[in-house]
């Protein structure tokens, strides 16, 4: 039976948000025959998040036992994944009911693609939603197109937190990169430079804006320049070596 693995790194103080993320996952309208596993990985010692995940029979919780950072924590969850597809769900974000169906069906409709990045709305503290424009027109994104947009604009140019990808491709590139900032973007640029992807026209998830958001904390921008330089260097190195994933991806239904 086909399986999609959803990875969620979490800190103990995010237990309340984590419950809402789990409810949004429980409400997914999956394609016929598909199942979901929710791999919750705590960046720290076992505590409140373990209690939350027990409410959801499709969840599997594990704690690092120490603080390793969000990107290593995602990779710890990745090591436990059994699905043919992997989806990122941050602990404070929410999926709309058709989110996973939209991604799964995109892989079926476009067998060449290795990744799908969903469009999002900001979820504001008063529960209202705010839209923002997509960086590219919806449809198939050929290798190098998204990365060139990142180089030209100097911005992420894609909502990395909504990524769904073929798990073999993610593992081949080493998962999420241990940069100080932007490890999710560093993975996405490797995928986007070497393989085709897809941007659906639908909004599929909500990016929560709140006071405790990591990217809004003092000091977040301190190492941003160095991390951006590493990401640009990765794109340049892939282009210099002419790296492309030549093989057709395996079907995502096994």
Major β-sheet profile: 8 strands, mixed
Widest beta sheet: strand line-up: 3-2-1-4-10-6-11-9
- The CATH topology assignment is Spore Coat Polysaccharide Biosynthesis Protein SpsA, Chain A
Distance between the amino and carboxyl termini: 6 Å
Q: How many whole angstroms does the radius of gyration measure?
A: 17 Å
Tell the overall outline: globular
Structural class: alpha/beta
The count of helical stretches stands at: 8
Helix content: 25-40%
Pfam families: Glycos_transf_2
Protein name: Glycosyltransferase
InterPro entries: Glyco_trans_2-like, Nucleotide-diphossugar_trans
Domain Glycosyltransferase 2-like: 5-112
Can you describe this structure?
- There is one protein chain.
- This protein has helices spanning 15-26, 48-53, 70-78, 99-109, 145-153, 167-172, 183-194, 224-241, and strands spanning 3-10, 35-42, 59-63, 85-88, 94-95, 115-117, 119-123, 129-131, 139-141, 163-166, 197-199, 203-208.
- The protein is α/β, with parallel strands linked by helices and 254 residues long.
- The chain has a single domain, classed as Spore Coat Polysaccharide Biosynthesis Protein SpsA, Chain A.
- The strands form two sheets. An eight-stranded mixed β-sheet has the order 3-2-1-4-10-6-11-9, with helices on both faces. A four-stranded mixed β-sheet has the order 5-12-7-8.
- It is globular.
């Amino acid at each position: 039976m086909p399986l999609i693995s959803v990875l969620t790194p979490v800190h103990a103080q995010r237990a309340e948000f984590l419950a809402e993320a789990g409810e949004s996952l429980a409400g997914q309208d999956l394609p016929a025959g598909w199942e979901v596993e929710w791999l919750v990985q705590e960046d720290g010692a076992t505590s409140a998040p373990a209690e939350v995940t027990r409410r959801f029979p499709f969840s599997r919780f594990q704690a690092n036992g120490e603080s390793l950072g969000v990107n290593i924590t995602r990779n710890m969850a990745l090591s436990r994944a059994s699905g043919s597809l992997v989806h990122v769900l941050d602990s404070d974000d929410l999926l709309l009911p058709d989110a996973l169906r939209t991604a799964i069906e995109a892989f079926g409709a476009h067998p060449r693609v290795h990744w799908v990045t969903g469009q999002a709305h900001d979820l504001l503290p008063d529960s209202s939603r705010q839209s923002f424009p997509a960086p590219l027109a919806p449809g198939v994104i050929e290798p190098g197109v998204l990365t060139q947009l990142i180089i030209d604009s100097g911005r992420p140019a894609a909502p990395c937190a909504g990524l769904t990808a073929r798990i073999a491709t993610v593992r081949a590139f080493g998962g999420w990169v241990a940069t100080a900032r932007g490890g999710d973007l560093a993975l996405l640029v490797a995928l986007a430079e070497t393989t085709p992807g897809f941007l659906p026209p639908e909004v599929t998830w909500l990016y929560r804006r709140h006071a405790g958001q990591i990217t809004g904390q003092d000091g977040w921008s301190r190492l941003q320049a160095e991390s951006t330089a590493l990401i640009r260097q990765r794109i340049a190195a892939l282009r210099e070596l002419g790296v492309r994933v030549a093989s057709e991806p395996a079907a995502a239904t096994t």
